[in-house]
Amino acid sequence: QVQLVESGGGSVQAGGSLRLSCAASGYTYSSYRYYMGWFRQAPGKEREGVAVVYTGTGSTDYVNSVKGRFTISRDNAKNLMYLQMNSLKPEDTAMYYCAAKRYGSLSLQPEAYNSWGQGTQVTVSS
Fold this sequence. Notes:
- The protein is mostly beta strands.
- It is built from no helices and 11 strands.
- Strands 2, 4, 5, 6, 9, 10 and 11 form a 7-stranded mixed sheet that branches. It has a 4-stranded antiparallel sheet with strand order 1-3-8-7, with no helix packed on it.
């Protein structure tokens, strides 16, 4: 019952930056805490966990390939989650999805999440 809408995708040259946003509705941050994350999928490849955050504490985890380049954050008051992407590489090109789950623990496994956004395309040219 959590609705998620991504925005901020686009085309950028290698080395550039993008900031993705995910707007959440259907719940209240003051009453509930969620595990939320960013996942990406390129054509012909499996969906991959990129970064996750627990809205209750701000705890985060990242896939090794983006550590030091991407930063996940959340603004609970605005029901927003962000992914700041710096030093973008062509291999970062993918459809990026935000996802959420109510229970459990931080996980980069897409199968663990039960609420998904529609996706926003990120294209990085060399």
